[in-house]
Amino acid sequence: MKAIVTGGCGFIGSHLVDLLVSQGLQVTVLDNLSSGRRENLQQVENQVQVVECDISREGDWQQLFAGVDYVFHLAALADIVPSIKDPTSYFRTNVDGTFYVLEASRRHQIKRFVYAASSSCYGIPTVYPTPEDADIQTKYPYALTKYLGEEMVLHWSEVYQLPALALRLFNVYGPRSRTSGTYGAVFGVFLAQKLAGKPFTVVGDGQQTRDFTYVTDVAEAFLAAANSSYSGSVYNVGSGRTVSVLELVALLKGPVTYIPKRPGEPACTFAKIDKIKHDIGWTPRVTFEEGVANILKEINYWTKAPVWTPETIAEETKEWFRCLS
């Protein structure tokens, strides 16, 4: 079996590559290395092919889809703040990139296509846990571009009979999460602050809860989706519970400073995962406490990550407050 993983040098992608290799698949990784690291694949570097390319443009990379069984499309620009500041790059990568990957998959008649969608499409939900048929409320360009990608995947499945599924991921965390210069996911921010001996910058009162889902569980969801017989559907991928930011701080252990609550952010994210359990047979296995312990064992990974302060966060999120207030 042959698989392509776009974004395979990144956080979730590298864990998926690990899993696919362990299952005996022949894997090709497509990545432009804008946020991914080749070092994320060092444990399997002699077992995979890594091709540096730009999926947002047509190119020779599309010929690599010939004879491929599974395509896992994870390549994307992530995080909210930079998407507000630079929507053009997000549209090109997340929308145009998805189009070109879909077209390469269609032309070469791949057997299964699995797309990394985002739970950010729900915006501020009115139902918890949130089911797949909840209202779509894209609040910022990142959420919109990921949702447009999802809509294309489902459209290609319907019109061209491409066997495809989309997985809406909730708050994925774990080793190898991004250390780029953008202000993003809470784990990367907190871990760099802990290493630097700085206070954790808690948004609002810290009572907001998140459906933190461990990265190896997410990788297993992708493989289970590829091995299933379902097509043209969307599935939530979550942990089955929610955890407050203050609970996370208690596990990480350190001082806290509070920064203003931000507009457009939900007080809770919580996935209803009955559908993926029933159809695909996937269920999360790693508890939040186990996941945090695993991260702390590898905390030095975040040594070179930017250390955010209340002042630099305020400067970085000025456009967020201006646009969403």
- What is the CATH topology of the largest domain? Rossmann fold
Based on CA inertia axes, which overall geometry fits? globular
Per CATH, the superfamily of the largest domain is: NAD(P)-binding Rossmann-like Domain
In CATH, what is the class of the largest domain? Alpha Beta
Class from helix and strand fractions: alpha/beta
Describe the structure.
The chain has 325 residues and is α/β, with parallel strands linked by helices. It has 2 domains: 2-172 and 214-237, Rossmann fold, CATH 3.40.50.720; 173-210 and 240-269 and 286-324, UDP-galactose 4-epimerase, domain 1 (Alpha-Beta Complex). Helices cover 37% and strands 17% of the residues. It has helices at 11-22, 81-85, 87-107, 141-160, 186-195, 215-227, 245-252, 274-280, 288-297, 310-316, 318-324; strands spanning 2-6, 26-31, 48-52, 70-73, 112-118, 164-169, 172-173, 200-203, 209-210, 213-214, 233-237, 243-244, 256-259. The strands form 4 sheets. The chain has a 7-stranded parallel β-sheet, with helices on both faces. Helix 1 packs across helix 6 (215-227) and helix 3 (87-107) packs parallel to helix 4 (141-160). The longest helix has 21 residues, at 87-107. The relative contact order is 0.14. The model has no long low-confidence stretch (mean pLDDT 95).
